[in-house]
Amino acid sequence: MIYLETPNNFSPKFQVVSCYVECQGKLLFLHRPMHKSQGGKWGVPAGKVEIDETFEKALVREVQEEAGLKIDSGKLYFLKKIAVRHSEYDFIYHMYRVILDEIPEVKINPAEHQDYMWATPQEALSMDLVTDLDTCIKMYY
Q: Do 33 and 41 touch, CB atoms closer than 8 A?
């Protein structure tokens, strides 16, 4: 469950950054392999922030590791920070956006994902998305 305001008794275990990589009205979605958490579902580039890492640096690293894309941290636009509560743990989720001029060559890291696709926000809402991503997409698109 997501919260726009931090709920009582919220104890985040870690912080996560995510990025809507946008080009020509479409967003980049990555398909999670079956052996990972939420396997078989679609998500955007995202990952945990490492110790002593800025959110922007973590996001640049995650997008590079997961999709092989080099993005300029200066072009990242912060959207929102939300609180996420799962049955096992809580975490803070930082959402960013980057707009690219042309569709880049995506090089999926097979250890991270099994496929990718570009889809409009509307198309994405009919996809099998990771938990709460539909709500996050609706916040901005």
A: no
8 Å CB contact between 29 and 128: no
- d(C-alpha 129, C-alpha 93), whole Å: 16
By DSSP bridging, strand 12-23 and strand 46-48 are antiparallel
CA distance 97 to 141: 12
What are the angstrom distances between the C-alpha of 109 and each of 37, 92, 137?
16, 25, 24
Strand duo 12-23 + 90-99: pairing: parallel
> Which pLDDT score, from 0 to 100, does residue 60 have?
97
- Report how far apart, in Å, the C-alpha atoms of 84 and of each of 6, 33, 47 are: 9, 22, 14
Give the span between the Cα atoms of 99 and 77, in whole angstroms.
Answer: 9
What residues of the chain score a pLDDT lower than 50? none
Q: Calculate the CA dihedral of residues 60, 64, 69, 70 and round it to 10 degrees.
A: 50
Q: Which residue has the tokens 């679609």?
A: 42
Answer whether 0.70 is exceeded by the pTM: yes
